[in-house]
Amino acid sequence: MFSPRIPRFSPSFSPAELLTIAHSLTRRGDEHAAIRRFEHEFATLIGVKHAVMVPSARFGFLLLLRGLGLEPGDQVIMPGITYWAIPSIALAAGFEVVPADIGLHTHVLDPDAFEAAITPKTKAVVPTHLFGTPCDMPRILEIAHKHGIKVIEDTAQATGARMAGRMVGSFGDAAYYTFGLTKNITTLSGAMVTTNDAELAAYLRREMATAQPRPIGKALKECAVGTAMMVATHKWVYPFAVHPAVVLGNKLGQDPIHDRFGEAEVRYQQAPDASQYQAPRAVQAEVGLRQLTKLERLNSARAANGRFLDEHLANVPGLGVPAYPAGAEAIYMSFVVHHPQREALAAALRGRGVDTTIGYMSDITRSDLFPELRDYDCPASREAFDNLLHVPVHPRLTRRDLEHMVEAVRASCLEGGAGHGG
Ligand SMILES: Cc1ncc(COP(=O)(O)O)c(C=O)c1O
Fold first, then answer.
1. Which of 43, 105, 159, 421 has the CA that lies 20 to 30 A from 174?
2. pTM of the entire structure?
3. Which of the following CATH numbers is that of domain 15-213: 3.40.50.970, 3.40.50.740, 2.40.50.100, 3.40.640.10?
């Protein structure tokens, strides 16, 4: 029997979503009704009063900063490792970004580092539930309330994760989520904002009312990309067509998956207003409604895989494994290990059929995009960023895949990472 070939991710997009799209586009429904229904169900899931669909998480974040009354020059604290678009859009809108360090293996905002970063100009903090791991929200809220700081949860990678029994996204003044094709649920791109604040929700709705509807062609393009991902990661296709291309590409110094699906990092020169953004469409909401019915099952499968890896990779020589704040119920969007020779480890794993990635986060105090953040010191973010590697944890992994991965990681680490160049 062949040994497994394991893709780094697997989209939640499936033939069921294709049917939903076909059904939605061939029926003339009320554009707003499906969106309201998705928003209502999403708010109920998270346990908050209001949810508003927005074009992207970054734009939702910008609207939240403005809607919560922040003004240019105000400081916003965010973790040293995050998605580049979040500091980029805040800086473009005239806010001051202040990085604070993360826990080395939790990868989420360290509450002590957050408290130490507060100044009289601090007006908001962005606890980012990175890789599906909830931040220590009880402590972060306590500190934020003591200093009168607004809390905007970045829940882009953690829809459905819980902390202390409560959904993340329900703790702060507001939260944003995103539903790209590689997230745990997708709406063919698009995003959501949640809050308990009726005035803030009304502001978001007014802003969204001025946006032009997204052209249907864009949703169809995303649908084509989703279908391509679905086919490329299928168990009958990936081992024979895609994995060999990944191995070859890497030997030539390229990453065909990242090159195909990644987004270029940019420094926004100007903060956009709502008229420059495109409002989500009913077809996206209908895909979102279908995806919500699978969310708990997909998250549970990820979490079971993640716990298996937690347990079986705990004592591998040279390997750093993830840690979780007390009370966190992570959804394992990524399983992130640390290794001092991660490139060699990645090559050795590819040679054994396991694809990995260094992901697409930025170490914002060292990124060329943000020279003004260079003077901040976030040593744990730096160390994590230089050593991290995402190993597959997606819901389609079988028990055999997991056992193979554990053996592959163990063997590769025992060989010093580089034993099996791929
Ligand atoms: C942690 C985090 N925050 C924010 C975003 C931005 O999401 P969007 O592309 O919807 O703006 C992402 C995107 O993947 C993310 O991973």
1. 105
2. 0.96
3. 3.40.640.10
